[in-house]
């Protein structure tokens, strides 16, 4: 693996950072999340028009740039630095790769160019207790089912005009504002149960979307209810949906890890800056050895997480899976950076109005949505075959795995 950035990669990062520094300060972030969409549509249009961000990892045949997961991770690191609210995660990481992998040629030609241009946003509605279950990040998703009968989930049944959906999905990222929903639904009854994906336009009759209150307002989510909603099947009935979800999950984890690294790095920068300005006992608090040690620990954690995130993004382009482990390390680095930031900002850092709490909420919210970190590591260890012979945690010779 060559850790040096290419000229194109460096230009993507530099241009995006300059744009976000001008358009995405803490005041703009707070104003954007309070808007109807939960993000700034004008900023999203600028990111699409100037940088081609929505189509960065889409093939050129569908209007994309044709870059790899690595470039998308570098872009996400910059959006993470500013906590920029945008449809990037829901549209470009969750929905678009599934449309590309499973959709018919007609469906790809219809949807992907609009996604790449930034004129269409999408959201993946996955019923169940956690999105990470369907993506295979915290456990194998081979037994995942999108429906639970009348008790929950989403059911799909055939009708004269195609397919009809009934049910509910909670915690759908950007589900209240997406132009099209990609809904995972259970079909086949008890005899041939399986999960399929369906396309539902935002204005379909019987569709109800309610934005929910979230700890991290920069990741808006919604409860999606479907009452006899007409839907189009994505691809064919023979599509292997669960393997496609698991395959997308690793790339999602790698990019999320880079995003968390960007947020942690920015929080560290702001804390170091404040520690150099705040004076106590006649000297800056940053000059005290105890404070230096705490900031050094955060720095080491951020750099280690960045290395893991970059490797995971590079490995995803080669068909290898390292995203879950990188995400676990990045979530811990962000949690540590945010907690130390609140502490070392002193009394002002404990007020909800301070910007440090935007990062603190992002750290806590991401752990709830995509973690916790120890479950991500457990799944990575299981996938690597470290736990064998029914003796979880033990290697040959009786040595404990760490």
From TrEMBL:
Residues 6-118 form the Acyl-CoA dehydrogenase/oxidase N-terminal domain. Keywords: FAD, Flavoprotein, Oxidoreductase. Residues 255-383 form the Acyl-CoA dehydrogenase/oxidase C-terminal domain. GO terms for molecular function: acyl-CoA dehydrogenase activity; flavin adenine dinucleotide binding. The keyword Oxidoreductase applies. It holds the Pfam family Acyl-CoA_dh_1. Its cofactor is FAD. InterPro entries: Acyl-CoA_Oxase/DH_mid-dom_sf, AcylCo_DH-like_C, AcylCo_DH/oxidase_C, AcylCoA_DH/ox_N, AcylCoA_DH/ox_N_sf, AcylCoA_DH/oxidase_NM_dom_sf. Belongs to the acyl-CoA dehydrogenase family. This is Alkylation response protein AidB-like acyl-CoA dehydrogenase. It comes from Streptomyces echinatus. The lineage of its organism: Bacteria, Bacillati, Actinomycetota, Actinomycetes, Kitasatosporales.
């Amino acid at each position: 693996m060559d850790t040096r950035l290419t000229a194109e990669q460096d230009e993507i990062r530099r241009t995006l950072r300059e744009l976000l520094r001008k358009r995405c300060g803490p005041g703009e972030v707070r104003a954007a999340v309070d808007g109807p969409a939960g993000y700034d549509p004008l900023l999203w249009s600028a990111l699409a028009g100037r940088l081609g961000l929505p189509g960065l990892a889409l093939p050129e045949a569908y209007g994309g740039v044709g870059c790899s997961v690595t470039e998308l991770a570098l872009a996400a690191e910059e959006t993470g630095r500013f906590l920029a609210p945008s449809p990037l995660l829901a549209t470009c990481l969750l929905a678009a790769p599934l449309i590309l992998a499973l959709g018919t040629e007609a469906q790809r030609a219809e949807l992907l160019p609009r996604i790449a241009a930034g004129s269409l946003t999408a959201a993946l509605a996955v019923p169940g207790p956690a999105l990470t279950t369907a993506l295979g990040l915290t456990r194998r998703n081979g037994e995942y089912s999108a429906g639970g009968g009348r008790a929950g989930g989403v059911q799909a049944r055939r009708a004269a005009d195609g397919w009809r959906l009934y049910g509910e999905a909670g915690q759908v990222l950007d589900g209240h504002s997406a132009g099209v929903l990609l809904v995972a639904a259970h079909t086949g009854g008890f005899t041939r149960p399986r999960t399929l994906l369906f396309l539902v336009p935002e204005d379909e009759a019987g569709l109800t979307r309610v934005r929910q209150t979230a700890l991290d307002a920069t990741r808006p989510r919604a409860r999606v209810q479907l009452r006899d909603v007409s839907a189009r099947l994505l691809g064919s009935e023979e599509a292997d949906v669960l393997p496609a979800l698991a395959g997308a999950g690793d790339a999602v984890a790698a990019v999320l890890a880079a995003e968390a690294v960007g947020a942690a790095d920015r929080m560290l920068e702001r804390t170091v800056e404040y520690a150099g300005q705040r004076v106590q006992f006649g000297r800056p608090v940053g000059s005290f050895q105890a404070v230096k040690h705490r900031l050094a620990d955060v720095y080491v954690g951020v750099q280690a997480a960045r290395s893991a995130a970059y490797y995971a993004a590079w490995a995803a382009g080669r068909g290898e899976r390292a995203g879950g482990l990188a995400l676990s390390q990045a979530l811990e680095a962000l949690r540590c950076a945010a907690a130390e930031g609140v502490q070392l900002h002193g009394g002002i850092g404990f007020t909800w109005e301070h910007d440090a709490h935007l990062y603190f909420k992002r750290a806590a919210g991401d752990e709830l949505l995509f973690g916790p970190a120890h479950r991500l590591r457990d799944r990575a260890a299981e996938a690597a075959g470290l736990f064998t012979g029914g003796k979880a945690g033990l290697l040959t010779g009786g040595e404990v795995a760490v």
